[in-house]
# Entry
Amino acid sequence: MSLFKGAGVALVTPFNADMSIDFPALRKLVREQIAGGTNYLVVQGTTGESPTLNSDEKKQVLETVLEENNGKLPIVYGVGGNNTLAVAENIRKVPQGVDGILSVAPYYNKPTQAGYVAHYKHLADNTDLPIILYNVPGRTGSNVLAETTLELAEVKNIVAMKEASGNMEQIMEIIRCRPEGFLVLSGDDAITLPLIAAGADGVISVVANSFPSHFSKMVTSALNGDFETARKYHYELLPVTKLLFAEGNPGGVKIALEELGWMKPDMRLPLVQVSDALKAKIIAETKKLVG
# Structure
């Protein structure tokens, strides 16, 4: 699925000071991604603070992104959870204009590997849209093993894995054994370049929210085999990348976005803004990158 190759961005959700959604800021963010060379948009992933948005708000966010994007970039919509039947019902309600589904591995109830297979096969049976799996053990509490991913890769409309396990050996095993056409996407910004060098197909990025041009140039250069250029952008981005995740996501990237003048840094509880010391470091690195 070439639609999902390259640099995808997991869009943040901007908020006003009263915690209502800042829709003008969301529209600006979409425009900046289009102008910056981002390849596709991911709406309502964890970076979008999806656990704290109700169903009506999620619908409004998606509709706003679809309208502002106006068909320019592919749209992936995050629909996940640990209640398989409820997730399937939500997937069936996804509106026209969405090009794919990102669905996180079920969290908290910690299914077995067989449970993961059954969960995702049930989701695949409930939609014709392509599904991107999402393995993020640091958030879900358990790991989708390489052999499980490879089993699911044989399902017709399961087309990719966003891998955020940080386990290079596991990710390379998926790359080595995957069927033709199945994409492997980095879920960790800092190791996107080495993963592409190992054969991965791109990234779903947090950092690209604030630095879309730098990040898309890094990814595109790497995919084209121009690793000299890719390394240049990688090492320019690495210091700020580390800072943006130092006190959790999306607190860090929202500070960079505030510095750029694109939105306020507000987040909904239980997330709180980063410390003043970290904020100062993020602002300094942001200024280095964008002047």
User: Anything to note?
Assistant: The chain has a mean pLDDT of 97. The first strand starts at residue 6 and ends at 10. The longest helix spans residues 227-244. The chain is about 45% helix and 15% strand.
